[in-house]
Design a protein that fits this description.
Strand content: 5-15%
Number of strands: 16
Helix content: 40-55%
């Protein structure tokens, strides 16, 4: 299947907003990047509008259309009536002149085909063969039914869309001509490619890009009348707005309640309840507010309200200028269409498979299934189904990831061989691990949120808070336990937290103290030896001679060495 919409993973920012917003879950999250599942996608284009990073891109056909326009073949443009709102002009002749400058041999409004479609709808409604009737003008709505609501296929009108109907009419009028559709819809690209009747589709932004390349400014083109005088008003120019198809009937067939359903979420709700409806005519459009709310409109100030007003004014002008004709839309072209069931690749999952996935993320009981929707799926079981089909990473579950992070943090902190104390900037205790409780001599278990001063002297933490450096190190004596610790305090400004690590150095301090005592004792012994030697030396000086002086020098040197060693240790 050709791609008409794709994700730029280099721009994907791991936010999953497209998955949250996609009503048919046609987005796969793999390795924290979003990918469009073509077989599940109905090409509503909603993801292109909600993606904050503009990572969802419509495949452009500009280059292919340019080749077609320079091929020497006669190329006719079929232009959706929503051009009125996107380009801000109400005279189709202006757009026709602009298209001629691009190389189009001719151009006509798709509303001509829409008029024939409305006539066909009326014939089917009057035949009484439909218990409920769903319009087939929106290709995305048709795909939604074909892929996800096969029970509603019997209600879907077996009639071509206005684009296909118009293409058939143009090709009959001008044999050998190539037809290019121009409009605000992505789904039309797929419909055109599969029809074999439409050679390409340009969205309104793509057409504007071609105008810009050629320096064509619509407002500079003289407002002239190029089209032949019409014989009647075409009510089907209403198609782009909500209730546009309903209002395209000059006279509505009796026996049906006429409702317009726009927006894919509302379409889904209607299809969920279609079996409970009786003789309801559903004008269905997946774009909110109709085609004027399509994904490839050219946005203007005033939004869809202003766009709807512009289309209504356009149609009203048509009604004022031309007579109403009840039997409008006659054509020799056959507009019958088939909409077969379309199957997606995703397979159903057994209850056992789903539970195995749920168990892997710590969900063993029904109450563990929070169905919070943070993963993008409505329920935990839907998420498990996506994991089984390879559409989602198993660990993308906010409660699970939070629980796992908290568990890991708890294990790291409480099983650390070093004492850990966490205080906020008010010097209230946020966390103390078991080793710190032991070092500080704290026996109470109800310490969280209490002032640190109630349990130990936080003077070093106060000093660290006032100091500019992010890391503060010092030695600390704890009277309660007669312990010595090396204290490292880190400030975490964004969290307003002081993180203290206590390393027990009591053994080292005690060893050094013992070593100092040995040194002192050795020095005292050396002094005593020197004194005794001097006394003995005086008594037997005559016998020892120069030996006495040498002994004194040696003993004094020994004393000096011991004293110097003590000073170095103290420094």
């Amino acid at each position: 299947m050709a791609a008409y919409l794709f994700s730029k993973n280099v721009q994907c920012n791991d936010c999953y907003k497209c998955l949250h917003e996609c009503m048919v879950k046609a987005i796969a999250i793999r390795d924290r990047e979003a990918t469009i599942l073509e077989d599940r996608c109905v090409l509503c284009g909603h993801c292109t509008r909600v993606c904050p990073q503009n990572a969802k891109v419509v495949v452009s056909e500009i280059d292919r259309i340019k080749v077609l326009l320079h091929s020497g073949k006669k190329v006719i443009a079929s232009v959706a009536p929503s051009f009125v709102s996107s380009f801000g002009i109400s005279n189709f002749s202006v757009l026709k002149l602009a298209l001629a400058r691009l190389g189009f041999a001719d151009a006509e409004e798709t509303a001509v085909g829409a008029e024939a479609v409305t006539r066909k709808y009326r014939e089917l409604l009057e035949s009484g063969t439909y218990d409920n009737f769903i319009t087939s003008a929106c290709p995305a709505a048709c795909q939604l039914i074909q892929k996800y609501y096969p029970k509603a296929l019997k209600y879907l009108a077996k009639v071509d869309s206005p684009m296909i109907a118009h293409a058939k009419m143009l090709r009959e009028q001008t044999p050998g001509a190539k037809v290019v559709f121009i409009g605000p819809c992505i789904a039309k690209k797929k419909e055109a490619a599969e029809s074999g009747l439409v050679s390409g589709v340009l969205t309104f932004p793509e057409l504007q890009e071609m105008f810009d390349e050629q320096g064509i400014v619509l407002s500079d083109i003289m407002d002239v009348q190029l089209e032949p005088e019409k014989t009647h008003a075409n009510f089907s120019k209403n198609y782009p707005v909500s209730r546009g198809i309903i209002n395209s009937f000059v006279q509505r067939p009796q026996g049906y309640a006429y409702l317009a359903i726009d927006g894919i979420n509302r379409c889904i709700r209607a299809l969920d309840n279609i079996e409970h409806l009786d003789h309801v005519f559903l004008e269905m459009n997946v774009c909110k507010d109709g085609c004027i709310g399509g994904p490839c409109i050219i946005k203007k100030d005033g939004g869809t309200i202003r766009s709807a007003c512009e289309v209504w004014n356009y149609v009203d002008e048509e009604k004022r200028k031309y007579p109403v004709q009840a039997d409008a839309g006659k054509t020799r072209v056959i507009l019958d269409a088939e909409y077969p069931r379309l199957r997606t690749m995703g397979r159903p999952a057994s209850n056992r498979e789903i539970e195995e996935v749920l168990h892997r993320i710590g969900k063993y009981k029904p109450e563990d299934e929070r169905n919070c929707g943070s993963c993008g799926y409505s329920t935990c079981r839907e998420k498990a189904w996506a994991v089984i089909n390879g559409y989602a990473d198993i660990d993308v579950c906010l409660p699970y990831m939070r629980q796992r992070a908290e568990t890991m943090s708890y294990e790291i902190i409480h099983n650390s061989p070093e004492g850990i104390v966490v205080l906020n900037n008010d010097l209230r205790i946020l966390e103390i691990n078991n080793k710190a409780l032991e070092l500080l001599g704290i026996e109470s278990t109800d310490f969280k949120g209490c002032m640190a001063a109630d349990f130990f002297d936080p003077a070093h933490f106060t000093h660290a808070l006032k100091q500019g450096a992010s890391v503060f190190e010092t030695e600390m004596y704890i009277p309660n336990t007669d312990k010595y610790v090396h204290l490292t305090i880190s400030k975490i400004p964004d969290q307003h937290v002081l993180f203290g690590i206590m390393k027990d150095v009591t053994g080292i301090v005690n060893y050094n103290q013992q070593l100092d005592a040995v040194r002192q004792n050795t020095i005292r012994t050396a002094d005593e030896v020197i004194t005794k030697q001097m006394r003995v030396a005086q008594e037997i000086a005559s016998l020892l001679g120069e030996t006495t002086a040498e002994t004194k020098v040696a003993l004094v040197n020994l004393k000096k060495i011991l004293e110097d060693d003590k000073k170095e240790k103290e420094e």
